[in-house]
Amino acid sequence: MPTAIAVTSADLVLPAPDRHTPGAAVLPPPEQLDLAGTLAQTSALLERHGHLVAVVPNWLPRTAVQRLHTVRAILETDRIALLDVDLPPLGTALLVRQLRQLSGCDFSPGVIASAARLLSHYIYAGALLGSVAKLDRIPVGLKAHARSWSPGAQFAVLAHPTPHLARLGGSGGSGGPGGSGRSGRSGAAHGGGAAVLPAGPEFATHLTFARGQLASDWVAAELGPAWQVHGVMENPLPAASPGWWGTQKLVEFAAGIPDLSVLYQLVSSVRREECRWCGFELIGDRCGFCAAPLNAPPPPAAPANTARSRP
User: Fold this and answer.
1) Main-chain dihedrals φ then ψ at residue 224, nearest 5 degrees
2) Which residues pair with 57 in a beta bridge?
3) DSSP letters along 232-244, please?
4) Which of 134-148, 210-224, 281-295 reaches the highest mean pLDDT?
5) Measuring CA to CA, how many Å separate 163 from each of 142, 171, 288?
6) N or C: which end of the chain has fewer CB atoms below 10 A?
7) What's the helix, strand, coil split of the chain in %, to 5?
């Protein structure tokens, strides 16, 4: 059986791109399933699949993160990888789908776990927001905060891989740091002003978006063509998205590599190493199972001897 991929909520499981892509296990939070139930569920997954790779977003409540670590400690197993992921909710769901795709290939559990860090570099995650007044995930200037109170204000925000914030419509000026690479201009649908779009990927991607309480077709109608995406899919908004972006008035989006053959080539092109701590295969500079770095840290420098010898 393929390595099991696990998530912490069902809304992080995007539809499979084909019938060969495995599903994902859902490990409910403490308020939905007690510790005994989580232990039984996790044990069954290990019995069936051999290894478990769980995606742990950095926006999870602390109690949910502690539960995952408690389960791994009680089971006393090295076959559970807890992957810390720093992506918005829809971007996290996209990464999970890519890991599910790879889990059906001939990669070892260690390679699949460590591939998450590699794949995340190729995910472009952002949102169209009706307000950035409560956005604290990327830098937001005072001017952008002030413009959030304007009626009908909308902002194009890219959180990953390079933070970017621009107001759509009006003066269209940039309200934050911008990226490099392919970009476009937009604004006709918001009053005729022009705004610099977030820099898009330089490789073939598929765009997934999810609507909150913001009625706009900007993501599919303008951003998708500007980024020259090869496909667009709408998905329900993850429950954590409004909290992550600081507003209910949003349309979240994420673009990533959809083709399994490209993902496979990307991962297989990286040199494989053996973790010096737990022995799992890994790619990159850190083990996905024990989080040990590939190379041992240098020994601490000896303190300088400042004492003067007496005659």
Assistant:
1) -55, -50
2) 85
3) EEE-PPPTTHHHH
4) 210-224
5) 16, 20, 26
6) C
7) 30, 20, 50
**Nearest CA to 74 among 42, 98, 108, 45?**
42
Report DSSP state, residue 214: -
Q: Are 84 and 36 in contact (CB under 8 A)?
A: no
Residue 196 has pLDDT above 90, yes or no: no
pLDDT in tens, 114-172: 999 999 999 999 999 998 989 988 877 655 555 555 657 799 999 999 999 988 864 33
Measured CA to CA, the distance from residue 36 to residue 75 in angstroms comes to 11
Give the tens place of pLDDT for each residue, 29-48. 999 999 999 999 999 999 99
Phi and psi of 295, rounded to 5°? -105, 140
Q: Contact, 118 vs 142, CB < 8 A?
A: no
SS3 67: helix
- Inter-residue contact 185 to 143 (CB < 8 Å): no
Q: Count other C-beta atoms under 10 Å from residue 236's C-beta.
A: 10
DSSP 35-60: HHHHHHHHHHHHHHHS-EEEEEETTS
Per-residue pLDDT tens digits for 98-112:
999 999 999 999 999
Residue 176 DSSP SS3: coil
Whether 99 contacts 52, CB under 8 Å: no
Cis peptide before 161 (omega within 30 of 0): yes
Contact 162, 199 (CB under 8 A): yes
Sole residue written with tokens 């993501």: 219
Chain position carrying tokens 């996905």: 288
Give the span between the Cα atoms of 81 and 104, in whole angstroms. Answer: 17
